[in-house]
Amino acid sequence: MKIDRASPANSPADWPCASAGANWVLVFALTLVAYWPALDAGFVWDDDGHLTRPELRSLAGLARIWFEPGATQQYYPLLHSAFWLEHQLWGNHAPSYHLLNVLLHATAAGLLGTVLRRLSVPGAWLAALLFALHPVAVESVAWISEQKNTLSTVLYLGAVLAYLRFDTERRRAAYGWATGLFVAAVLTKTVAATLPAALLVILWWQRGRLAWRRDVLPLLPWLTFGVAAGAVTALVERTLIGAQGSDFALTWPDRLLLAGRVPWFYLGKLLWPADLIFIYPRWNLDATAAWQYLFPTATLGALAMLWRWRHRHRGPLAAALFFGGSLFPALGFVDVFPFLYSYVADHFQYLPSIGVLALVATFLIRIPPAWRNGIAPTVLVAFTALTWRQSGTYRSAETLFATTVQRNPASWMAHNNLAILLVDAGRADEAISHYEKALELRPNYAEAENNLGYALTTLGRPTEALPHLQRALQLRPNYAEAQNNLGIALMALGRTAEGIEAFRSALRLKPAYPIAHVNLGLALARGGDTTHALELFERAARLDPTYADAELNWGIALRATGRTPDALAHFARAVELRPKFGAAHFHLALALRQLGREREAASHLRIAEELGFRPALPR
Question: Taking Cα atoms as reference points, which of 545, 552, 559, 556 lies closest to residue 582?
Fold first, then answer.
């Protein structure tokens, strides 16, 4: 019976370099080159939901990460502990996070080469290079939030190496190391729970059969832990993240159609990585359409063919089982929140791609040297160029969503998110068409209604904004942000009492809402109730210690009551939090001048003017 392993006589298992150390260096060097555009990128989309929030940055916050589900966006305590430590080291310096993610990806690729070489897989280091440079991995490497992928894969492959040592030596220490690394990988991302099944596939590939005591029994505790972790993650996705409702109401025929189609999509992107998109179009599943059954039929047919071929070559079936098994959490049997936008995403196949790329490397390494030495470098150069280009789309959130809208005009989420960024950049007029497009694509989109209403208010069109904000509240009655924005529009229309009530409603719905505290405080201060306004500004600053507007308005209210020395500290804090905050520099200058510190006041007035903040100075 033939086992697909490297044969020194006919295939250079260590291609392209003779030593493992040289291959490691090559993997790191080429990975850094390919991902160079990502190294100075910023934060995108939900990075702020994954990076450690202010209230979690203490030791008590670290404890909450572990023991309070819901304290973080997902219950991946080891991942968020890593983010906690990283924040202690470099704060919110985005390039440091990007560099670490690239280094973790390179480490994962190096470990893959080591694991495959340990298993005598032909083309082990070629597979490592394919994984390191493949553009499908860009979404996991250039997006800081997906450190869950890179870190968990490093731990996953470390667990594989330790378990292979245990399988050879049967020593408890090796089993302990393997178990510890496996648990760590699962606590970083639950897809690592598929590792026990993957190890059984590897052992079957090596031996042709599985023995209960030798092969299965040691992995039963891992399987048990993995199932429990998967159940917890599914519960968190449904109850805390929101993977429930009509958008996730798939029938079982729909789920089977999805499970049959997803692997072919990912396989296509691995073999021909063209038209990669951050958000792919969401398929319309139709159990009455005969053509959609071609995908599950082809899947079953391919598995049947590989099963029959196993007596000659077990490698292709093992690769297919690894690929499909590692994809299982994303096949549609379990609802995950990204299904709201698309049933597929490049980061879902980061780990599963290993199986296919190892098989491709085995094929390339076995063709005649004259062909291999031309084809393999060409593929690697092409992958490097594609990865370089794809990494550039993650340079900023605006670049990412503008590219997504260009490549997938039907992405309502991308239109909405791009519009938010345009409003934040002071380009609300450009945002309107994107909000309208998002609502055209998704008519009952409460977030877009709310955001459009806010943009119209920003443009001085509060009358037009009101119907959109009211529609948002009709679609989602407990929408605190829409209540807050309704209050802003009402205040702009001079309907102060209604505006105050809207702000109060927002706080009833969401008591820990700093922005609504500040807006209610401003509304009360406008009516002369400075005492209550001060309490609200203080509360907002306590809720969010990084909220510069709360500090500024707290200082303004204090200065209005004659407490200029107290106000000075808050103006200074606002400038510290946001150095380019013109209004904060201006009011700090006024406070300094009132206290007789003219030279310092002049400096801050100059900065305020340079930042474009030039109100008339009081006499």
Answer: 552
